[in-house]
Amino acid sequence: MISVLKIFIKTNIEGHSEYEPYKITNSSNTINIESEKLRIPEDTVLMSDLVPLEIKYFPEKTVDYLSSILYSDLFIEILSKKLKDYKKENRKEYETTREEADNNRIPYYNILIILERLFKQGTPFFYDKNRTMTVLNYFWDGNYVINISTANNKDFKLYEAYVNLELDLRSPDKITPEEFKKSQCKSQKEKIKRIWNSLKNIDYKPPTELLQKLPSAPALYSNTVNVGGNN
Fold it and tell me: Are the C-beta atoms of 211 and 12 separated by less than 8 Å?
């Protein structure tokens, strides 16, 4: 059974402070999604819960990366390259069981790799293709829910992760290095807090950010950044 990930996000932007499905168009305002080629449930991306993912096997350009986790043929090609390299390095086929994969926390780490790529600090973010915002931080408590979803008469193992995003209304080029550094410190502090809470068996709660209201007109200090093949 193919595994997919559905990310639910809520942000500090007014009107988006409740969890809603992440959409690929949140990460690119120019990507052309070929709906007829999609074979997965709506608002999901491909993942593996058996084979460890490595970001080095995925394209660097944003639109190419997004395509690689949308279209099954591209994703399978990446997994095949990973397994081929494993066989070459270890002189044996990669084998695992569901129990071993869960014990090694492969689903958790693969979700983490996807989140870190999609919501990397400084990444453009879009609710409107003509307004570029910026990801400052993302917060995930490390938990996920597993369900079964059906699309095109196929069953998919569906992982659901709930993520809090801290966004800046400005585009990345309008944010200073000092401001990014401040956000990095905050992110590190929250990471330590989450690990500490885990050790103490205390539920981690992401920080609550003040809501920001989107101006009705384009912001004076925000440039529209087109995230396509060159980004």
Answer: yes
What are the contacts of 115-120 at 24+ separation with CB within 8 A?
Answer: 115/7, 115/140, 115/161, 115/163, 116/55, 117/55, 117/58, 117/65, 118/7, 118/22, 118/27, 119/163, 119/165
Q: How far is CA 15 from CA 79, 83, 162, in A?
A: 38, 43, 17
- Dihedral sign for Cα 177, 27, 65, 9, please: positive
pTM of the model: 0.88
Where exactly are the structural domains of the chain? 2-199
**pLDDT reading at 230 higher than 80:** no
> CA 120 to CA 155: how far, in whole Å?
31
Q: How far apart are CA 179 and CA 80, in angstroms?
A: 41
Task: Report whether 169 contacts 214 (CB < 8 A).
Answer: yes
Rg of the chain over CA atoms, in angstroms? 18
**Residue 221's pLDDT band (boundaries 50, 70, 90)?**
very low
Is the Cβ–Cβ distance between 122 and 134 less than 8 Å?
yes
